[in-house]
Design goal:
single chain; Arc Repressor Mutant, subunit A; 8 helices; 3 strands
């Protein structure tokens, strides 16, 4: 190619870079920080935070599959399994109210009411009037529900033993404390995001180091 032709090609490439706002060397690009808490950042970078978030998203997606698997073993849906096993663990001696069950599971009460109704129809849960107020109901396990969970237990134990392999007792305790914190923080973060959206909060200019087309 002639010197003139080479120069035209270089000019065209430079123009393309200028038009698209792209970097000639991708290594020059630095994404904006997605968190600013100093205790999270490392040398001014949020890369460790991003890796943690991606890991949490992967784990969350996998965890959602377990209720479906466990429920299938005893012939119920994912939602029905989660309500059944939650009831088994928190019903106490008198049973558990719909609102208390919903709060425990962080789910809407109408959703719990519908699912409980289906489990009652299947004979796995029992429902009776709450003698304390005469209006609400108390939900408890039936012998059939207990038998279903006992049938599932050997399978479930093997799966969960693998899921929590490698954690010491202390690490498990710390992990539980962290989850408690994230249960609160994740709800407050959603509330914050909704408030910002309602207020119409948005960036008035591109963040640093972001290409503009």
């Amino acid at each position: 190619m002639s010197a003139d032709g080479t120069r035209k090609a270089e000019t065209t490439a430079e123009t393309a870079v200028e038009i698209t706002g792209a970097w000639e060397r991708p290594g020059d690009y630095r994404p904006p920080l997605s968190i600013t808490r100093p205790e999270i950042l490392r040398d001014g970078s949020d890369s460790a935070f991003r890796e943690l978030i991606w890991g949490l998203l992967v784990v969350a997606k996998r965890l959602q599959k377990y209720p479906e698997i466990f429920g299938r073993r005893i012939g119920v849906s994912s939602a029905q399994y989660t309500v059944l096993i939650a009831t088994a663990h928190i019903q106490g001696g008198e049973g558990i109210g719909i609102r208390a069950l919903a709060d425990y599971m962080h789910l809407p009460a109408p959703h719990i009411t519908t699912t409980v109704g289906r489990l009652v129809e299947a004979g796995l849960l029992a429902k009776r009037q709450n003698p304390a107020d005469g209006r609400g109901v108390l939900v408890s396990m039936t012998k059939e529900g207990d038998a279903a969970l006992r049938k599932l237990a050997p399978f479930q134990q093997q799966v969960n033993d693998v899921l929590f392999a490698g954690l010491s007792r202390r690490e498990f305790e710390i992990f539980g404390q962290m989850i408690d914190t994230f249960l609160v923080n994740s709800e407050e973060a959603l509330i914050k995001a909704a408030a910002l959206e309602r207020a119409g909060v948005r960036s008035t200019r591109p963040p640093p180091n972001v290409a503009v087309e």
